[in-house]
Amino acid sequence: MAVSGQRRRPVVALYERIADAVHDGTYPPGSTLPSEPKLAAELGVSRPALREALLLLQEDGVLTVRRGVGRTVNDRPPRRGFEHVQPLEELIGSGTPLRVRALLRTVEEPTDFTTQHLLAPARSELRFWESVLTGEGAAAALSHEWAAPDELLDRVHPEFARALREAEAGSGGVVSMLAVLVAASRETALTAHSGITATLLGRRRGEQLGRPADTPAVLITQVVRVGETPVLAAKHMLPTGTPALPVLQSH
Asked: What does R_g of the chain's alpha carbons equal in angstroms?
């Protein structure tokens, strides 16, 4: 959860103070937070405001409430989603990233989707990756990812272009294209936009995910940019039963 702009609700500022304390080690993974009265006194805030912020942190996977123990910091708290573009396998991994299984790594001509979102010229060649994300032995999501044409990437984000080539050459483990992009962008600012639609899996996707064709699913479309230039477009299909996906909003 995050709110951008000059005005923030007090609970949001409090949420970020506690999240900062988790990420800087003041409250390390596995530790138990002080009681509500003590924590409210330490932070100089009211207990109702603190309770609301703690609930939001719990919903976002930072804290867990344990009966008889209190609120504890998760062993692997999620990274600050409003600061970093994150691969889907980390967002829906509930603290443990999902495994990525490559189904297809190829080059294809633009489709209507990639022409629209990557502004790819006709007859250009786009890298296309199809992957299944799995966790606890079950398929959790199907991802289709396309990179912008190499000549554009070599100009606007050469590190990403180089990392893609290395990944396809078998350098390192199997990861998503977005994970490659994030790892190659430590010095490059990324922005992303996503859309969410309710749908059904359909026959082919159902077979790939081991589910019936009429299984309800959420389709997430995603475009990642460097400045104003789109460098990656993706479609992620999440069937019913996939671990919760945190949705981060700003205004």
From this structure: 20
Per-residue pLDDT tens for 90-112? 888 656 778 999 999 999 998 88
Q: What is the pLDDT of residues 234-248, one digit of tens each?
A: 999 999 888 767 665
Instruction: Tell me what the mean pLDDT of segment 167-180 comes to.
Output: 85
Residues ≥6 apart with Cβ < 8 Å to 91? 78, 81, 245, 246
Q: Tell me the residue length of the chain.
A: 251
Other Cβ atoms within 10 Å of 222 Cβ, number: 20
- The pTM for the full model equals 0.67
Of the candidates 173, 240, 232, 175, the residue with the CA atom closest to the CA atom of residue 205: 240
d(CA 232, CA 118): 7
**Neighbouring C-beta atoms of residue 173, cutoff 10 Å:** 9
3-state secondary structure (DSSP) of residue 142: strand
For 207-232, the DSSP string reads HHHTS-TT-EEEEEEEEEEETTEEEE
Backbone angles phi, psi at 54, to 5 degrees: -65, -35
Q: Where are the alpha helices (DSSP H) in the chain?
A: 10-23, 36-43, 47-59, 88-91, 112-118, 150-156, 158-168, 177-183, 203-209
